[in-house]
Please model this.
Amino acid sequence: MKPKECYNALLAQKLIEEFKKRNIEGLYCETKEDALKKVLEIMPKESMVSCGGSETLHEIGLHVALKKEGYNFLDPDDAQGAKAKDIVAHQALGADYFLMSSNAISVTGELVNIDGYGNRVASLIFGPKNVIVIAGLNKVEPNLEAAILRAKNYAAQNTLLIFKQDYSSFDELSKVAEGACSQLVITGMSMTKGRIKVILVGECLGF
Model:
């Protein structure tokens, strides 16, 4: 095993132990292909599935796979217009499985997420019967404070650039990100044991 692979495996083991203390189930996959396979293994075919906006989910090919495999997939990317997206966001609260990534994860096991609209963090907190979080180990920070800074700065600003790229300066981007990302959620515990599963991936994924 190469040093980086060994480090990733040890870090994932540490996080899985920390998640367990918080009623969260942790799993580790070395590659994004393994992560995609694991997600599909967890969810029965008859499940109603939805997701939050996530670069990571696109990078592992999840949207394409769910449609190919015939899941009852409420894809927010297919909704056209604000009204249609709002309907899907509310329907997702009743999903059997809600899929998302996390903006940051502390090495002590807290999940840190920022939203503007709030539907993604709402589904993480309450509603869907199961939540599966897929996150590359690049999102792990040494403590909660660093994880919050990562979410507020790096993740939030990169997410804004998906929708608009013509900012005049980095300072302008930072200011817009500060105002747009109005919902900060720190998940320190799952009240229902095993409802939240985190699949850690030994690759750099998402923002």
About this structure: The chain has eight helices and ten strands. The beta strands are 25-29, 48-51, 72-74, 97-100, 104-106, 111-115, 130-136, 140-141, 183-187, 196-201. The CA atoms of residues 155 and 207 lie 5 Å apart. The helical segments are 3-21, 32-42, 55-59, 62-68, 82-92, 119-125, 144-163, 170-180.
